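User: Can you help me understand a structure? I only have the sequence.
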Amino acid sequence: MTPAATTAPATELTVLDPRDGSLVGTVPAATEEEVRAAVAAARAAARDWAWTAPEERGKALRAAADRLAEHAQELAELNARETGKPVEESLGGVMAGVGTLHQYAELGPVHRGHSLRGSILAADWTVPEPRGVVLALTPWNDPVAVAAGLLGAAIVTGNTVLHKPSERCPHVGARLGEILAEALPAGVLTTVSGGAAVGAQLTAHPDVDVLAHVGSTATGEAIARAGVESGAHVIRENGGNDALVVDDDVDPAWAAEQAAIGAFANVGQICVAVERIYVHRAVAEPFLAALAEEARRRNAEGGLAPLVDELMREEVHRQVAESVAQGAVVVEGAEVPAGPGAHYPATVLRECAPGMTVMREETFGPVAPVQVVDSFGEGLRLAAADRYGLAATVLTGRIAHAQLAVAELPVGTLKVNNVFGGAPGGAAQPRRASGAGFGYGPELLDEMTQVKVVHVEMPPARG
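Assistant: Let's start by predicting it. Here is the structure, written out as tokens:
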């Protein structure tokens, strides 16, 4: 993902509607003094919130979720204006955020420690305690749903939170903060708007105890370095270059449908989007024909929604053009359309090879690059040979091949026969350049707390 194009002077964030280039508005960026004041307020509120009964914290988070539901349509429409994501899809993201907050409101009060076996006349147990002040840095591609996970888990476990939303959707971030904060005590949740400079000041602050980031790998690596220097606990889910491996025993039309969903959903602006495809030679031609038809259908039905801004479109097209220059063949798309906005067509490339840009880097656009392989094992080997380790998908009817994929693919999440499959509450640990730590599910409560071991025994009897 590329840096945002929406920072005007350092004092404000200006956002243009990616659908037509019209002005959405400007949001003031926090000054250095305002950042320091926000951290101080979060620190001042930390002890009282940590000492609040878990049940009361759960009730407050539940009330915040209900308020979010009341304003769901407002946020969805605002999200559509800032990022170009269609209103119905944006509404789905907001409601997913509501569900996540309700989930953590239930899980938080029952988050518990463990008893330990020691002496028969002693008691030993562990106590999970809030870490303190959590900084949540969240992305623009699903701004409410992602933020709800980090904010909900942090708040319900007794932490106070500083939230810096992406500079690409500052209006959504600011309004989300207003809505949620109305249900919480002062200082528990503070929204800080700004670009890279504000983020750097926050991540380097010595009074921040947790750095929780979802976004680009380059930013995540800088945050990890800041955490080493400050001693803050770091949780990060960063970029992915997720592979799809297609076996020779599956229906090629169905496999193409799965590939199209994975590569083109949300215009490819999903961390776990399908970024590179390895298809068995035995089904390659019918698969490519069906995938091209999937792309043509999406391009003909009014086209895809726009990318988040023109800078992102330029980056996507740069990767496509470089790969074509390196020998990839365009099957569909790959042309920047005329007219206003940041639109880009669903694109299919064939004759791709490992060294090409679209196979090495996270494109974050509606691009499906395809490499033909001679065996399922070759597909797995190529899928594994990557610096990222977020997720991968295999399509196969052979249980032995599915088990081989589980053993050999170094990723946090492996999906078999469904590119976006997964149970509610699922969590994973990204690997390599894709990050570290649990970013979702019940395990995120563990990330937001630290464990104290307690040992109690009777003193010796007095003489």
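Now, to help you interpret it: The two ends are 72 Å apart (CA to CA). The chain has 15 helices and 20 strands. Let me know which part you'd like to focus on.
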